[in-house]
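Raw record, unedited: Very-long-chain enoyl-CoA reductase
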Amino acid sequence: MAIATSQPPDLESDTLTTVPLKEAFLLSTSDVAWPHKWLATKVNIEKIAFEIAGIDTSAAFDTINRETLLKILEDIVNEDEHRIIRFLLSNTIIDTKIIGATEKKPFFSNLGTPQGDSLSPVLFTIYLEHALKEVRPVLPKPSTPLEKVLPREIAYADDVGFVAFQDIDIEEVGKVLEKYNLQVNVDKTEFTNLSRGETNWQTTKKVGTLIGHQEDIERRKQLSSAALVKLKNVWLKGDKIKKKYKT
């Protein structure tokens, strides 16, 4: 999985360092924003263009095929760890709340990973990475020296963007992911064209960061000013805040 390191990339270089999957769990959204900035800088320095196809997977955590996940984990964890994970994924009860209903009808679920714990994101990342191994062959094949060192995908949790010089066939990508019960919402797929002639990409947001450097700085300044205004009474009129709110 192509994810940037925590070190700022060399903007003059043709390469972008990636890290093994086991180290990727330590990275943050800032590390994912870096490769987008790197690609944008390459566009401004050289006469090249990229396409980033950001896919939208519907309720990804809730659609994982547990048996497939456990099969994948057989080659990663030992027998005891595998047994523990199987136990944690079993007996999942979903309690629905229907407006107007007089009684609840809980039911067992054998799909997805329970959210809200520290294990589920790790299991999902392993599951998605395994699926992406089958997606990569259907992506446009790299043909130039620069394209061969580009990250093929930039991912953070279920937010995945595929990078290529040519058009990316999202329908083919969706067919592969469908084998893993991951549903790609084609209508919500975000295509970002990075080129000198385009300006829309500068205001495209990736993991909370605008790709355009100046645009991102201006947006963060505006958000900071708005936050300061909202907290004006706290910063400037602290003596007028009721005592019960201070404790």
